[in-house]
Amino acid sequence: MAITDLPLFSMLRTRMQWHQERQRLLAENVSNSDTQGYRPRDLAPLQFDRTMPTLTSIGLDRTDAGHIASLNASSSQTSRLGGYDVRPTGIAVNLEDEMIKVAANQMDYQAATTLYTKSLGLIKIAIGKR
Amino acid sequence: MDFMKSIAIAASGLRAQAGRMRIISENIANADSTAQTAGGEPYRRKMATFTSEMDRALDAQLVGLGRVKTDPSEFRVKHEPGHPSADANGNVKYPNVNSLVEMTDLREAQRSYEANINVIGASRRMIQRTIEILKS
Fold first, then answer.
1. Do A27 and B51 count as a contact with CB atoms less than 8 A apart?
2. Cα–Cα distance between B113 and B28 in angstroms, integer?
């Protein structure tokens, strides 16, 4: 059994990949902050189903009641970014907002890696190597 | 590694902002450059534009410096008959550079530059955290 077969580890791995992808989008937003006509983008929050450790929600978000619900998740955007849903967050880039998002992303990533380390420690205790 | 992509994107932002600063400093330096010939046109203010370009290798929207445009606004005209660049009426055209506007632009470029550096720092720390898993 590989270590990634454990639900906790695969969830943490998905979480870390999500943060990685988000960091890339935030970097794009910041570097394009002075580009005319550029729309900032962000990832939709990561949601886990209770039973499945895999990513389940990859549909477009409905931010207004008048929006048409997305039928399937196989839009061009989601397939391009490996299963994560990308949505526009505004008309122009707000540098302060992006900085806050970068900091939050970093802290959440740190939390995920710490949890990963702790879980590895638990396994080590279980096999008696500590 | 995706964090390397983030760093590359932020680096493209740094490069674009540095190019913008170069153009602003050109404007400031030439704020009083009059024409070489009598009655000719002085230095015309330049403006940097940015374009978002898709990088296939990185699969990301990099930013680049677009075409440098010139400001079509009016020149400042002063009446100085003894000036070597004065026309027949004794008027001298000075560049359409407003140093206050240039300084504001410079500040803005600096702010964007710092934001990109912040992103690089954050990505770097995230890579470090990943490596620290190995050390546990």
1. no
2. 19
With cut-offs at 50, 70 and 90, classify the pLDDT of residue B43.
Answer: very high
d(CA A89, CA A44): 10
**Residues present in chain A in total:** 130
Triad A41, A42, A43: Cα angle to 5°: 140
Q: Residue A87: which domain range?
A: 3-126
Among residues B71, B98, B75, the alpha carbon closest in space to that of B87 is found at B75
Q: Which residues of B touch A115 (CB under 8 A)?
A: none
Q: How many domains does chain A have?
A: 1
Is B51 within 8 Å of chain A by CB? Answer: yes
| A35 interaction partners in chain B (CB closer than 8 Å) | 50-52, 63
For B57, half-sphere exposure in the C-beta direction (CA atoms, 13 angstrom radius) is: 3
Question: What residue of B is the nearest CA neighbor of A38?
Answer: B52
Q: How does pLDDT run across B70-94, given as a tens digit for each residue?
A: 999 999 999 988 888 888 888 999 9
What ipTM score was computed for the predicted complex, to two decimals?
A: 0.79
CA A7 to CA A113: how far, in whole Å?
A: 15
DSSP H or E segment with residue B4: helix B2-29
Q: Does A34 touch chain B (CB under 8 A)?
A: yes
What are the residue ranges spanned by the domains of chain B? 2-135
